[in-house]
Design goal:
Elements lengths: L1 E4 L5 E6 L6 H14 L10 E4 H4 L6 E5 L6 H5 L7 H20 L2 E2 L8 E3 L5 E3 L6 E2 L31 H8 L1
Antiparallel strand pairs: 1-2, 2-4, 3-4, 5-8, 6-7
């Protein structure tokens, strides 16, 4: 992730994809971002544009709003002690973001402190939707997911099985 500026001096985050990245993987993340990361979802990092929008770039990238205060992982590493009230508040906010994602029928599948971002006002935002998966079929019924994705230390044990419930693996990661 890189900090970039537009011609007017506005700051953004640029996620640059390795040229060897699978085209389908890039398109999946891009489609997830277009669906989830808009102004209607203030709990998710906002999608701005991508290499697909400019039509000429051979480099694959996605541009997001800048998370000025970086990730919750960075914030915690400052070694500022949190009291019980602050910890409960942060957990509540993260759980509400995950609930909002589930109400849109998506499972994140890579919830960890690196993917919980902070804006300039220290508002929490959920980011990195590369492993996210829609869990409704064409009949409108919830389906089981498959694939071992995400950060191994935060991964639910059932992700090692063939099929699993996406909502449950997100809840485990909390």
């Amino acid at each position: 992730i890189y900090r970039v500026y537009d011609p007017l001096g506005n700051e953004y985050s640029l996620k640059l994809f390795n040229r060897h990245v699978d085209v389908e993987q890039f398109k999946t993340e891009l489609n997830n971002c277009r669906l989830l990361c808009n102004a209607e979802n203030p709990d998710f990092i906002r999608y701005i544009s991508s290499s697909e929008d400019d039509g000429i770039s051979r480099v694959k990238y996605i541009v997001f709003e800048l998370a000025e205060k970086r990730s919750l992982d960075n914030f915690i590493s400052l070694e500022i002690p949190f009291g019980e009230k602050v910890t409960k508040f942060l957990f509540y906010k993260i759980a509400k973001m995950v609930e909002r994602l589930h109400l849109l029928y998506f499972s994140h599948r890579d919830l960890n402190l690196h993917n919980i971002l902070l804006d300039q006002n220290y508002n929490l935002k959920l980011g990195n939707f590369g492993s996210a998966k829609y869990f409704l079929n064409q009949s409108g019924k919830s389906v089981l997911l498959f694939g071992r994705v995400g950060t191994s230390c935060c991964m639910a044990p059932e992700m090692n099985k063939k099929l699993y419930d996406g909502k449950k693996v997100d809840i485990f990661s909390l």
